[in-house]
Amino acid sequence: METRNQAQESVRAAGFWPLRGSFPAFLDSNLFVTFATLLIFDFAFLCAYKYAMGLTLRTGAPFWFPDSVLLCALLLSRPRTWWIYIFATLPVRLLVAVPTDSPLWFLLVAFANDSLKAYLSALLLQFFLKNPTRFDSLRDFLIFCRA
Predict the structure, then answer these.
(1) What is the pLDDT confidence band of residue 8, given thresholds at 50, 70 and 90?
(2) Distances (CA, A) of 85 to 13, 27, 94, 100, 128
(3) No. of H helices and E strands in the chain?
(4) Where are the domains of the chain?
(5) Average pLDDT of 59-76?
(6) Cα separations (Å) of 40 from 44, 47, 49, 57, 121?
(7) Minimal CA–CA distance to 88: which of 33, 36, 123, 41?
(8) What is the CA radius of gyration of the chain?
(9) Which stretch, 13-17, 106-110, 139-143, has highest mean pLDDT?
(10) Which label site among 35, 44, 58, 69 has the fewest CB atoms less than 10 Å from its CB?
């Protein structure tokens, strides 16, 4: 297994880090990784939300795509960071593709409803399944369908 210094030297030798001196600490920190992951999640949620808001009554969907993206993010992240992903969806829900006649209280209630559904689903799946991101049996799939 390569140590941190060996990994930094190999990055410098390959030309990916042209500066001399120490490797930037923010690239090694968990904060940077969390922030980058959050940006990717927000972009995926934005795309799903814009698409879902463009659906008409004639082209309904059996699943609300933004909720699926949020549930995936919660299942792939640590429970202590779930609140970050949940609240990262709020600006998208309040600023993107909002119908002009929607009152603020309705948008906040819809946000709370969708967030609570994703949170409880992720919590139940983590409780009942060994690996909530993978189905090892038909039983696991049925538990997923009920959650």
Answers:
(1) low
(2) 36, 21, 15, 26, 22
(3) 8, 0
(4) 4-146
(5) 80
(6) 6, 11, 14, 29, 22
(7) 41
(8) 20
(9) 106-110
(10) 58
Among all chains, which residue has been given the structure tokens 């990994």?
Answer: 7
Here the tokens at position 6 are: 């060996």
Each residue's pLDDT tens digit, 95-137:
887 778 888 898 899 899 989 999 998 998 888 888 877 778 8
Residues 6+ apart with CB under 8 A from 54: 97
Place of tokens 């429970």: 79
Q: Which of 73, 80, 89 is nearest to 30 (CA)?
A: 80
